[in-house]
Amino acid sequence: MTRTDNIILRLATLYNRENTSNIYKLLSLSGDQLDELNDTVEDVRDSHFVGEATGASLDEIGEAVGLERQTGETDAQYRARILARVQGFIGGGTKDSIETAVSE
User: Fold this and answer.
1) Strand locations in 29-102, DSSP E?
2) Which of 20, 19, 43 is nearest to 7 (CA)?
3) CA dihedral sign of residues 43, 45, 47, 52
4) So where are the chain's domains?
5) For the chain, what percentages of helix, strand and coil (3-state, to nearest 5) are there?
6) CA–CA dist 30, 7 (Å, integer)
7) From first to last of its 104 residues, what are the pLDDT tens digits of the chain?
């Protein structure tokens, strides 16, 4: 269900709720904008997580943990190196954390 449909459902039954009505067309302008805004907010949120970040956002995360992208390195390869570095930070030098860092 679109955001416009959610808005329309909240209108009093007095209003014509058909998708051909003027009120629907007017509200769909706002609803469409809200859908786009929501998508953008989700993209921004996701760009802060290593598992979801791509491109420049992933580069910034890598730099934050002291890694630069190598020439020709894909996002997936760079992500794996970042995750291995982070594991080293949080692993505390345990046998399991060392094995995980070495295996990646």
Assistant:
1) none
2) 19
3) negative
4) 1-46, 50-104
5) 65, 0, 35
6) 10
7) 888 889 999 999 889 999 899 999 999 998 889 888 888 888 777 667 888 889 999 999 899 888 999 999 999 999 999 888 877 666 556 666 666 656 65
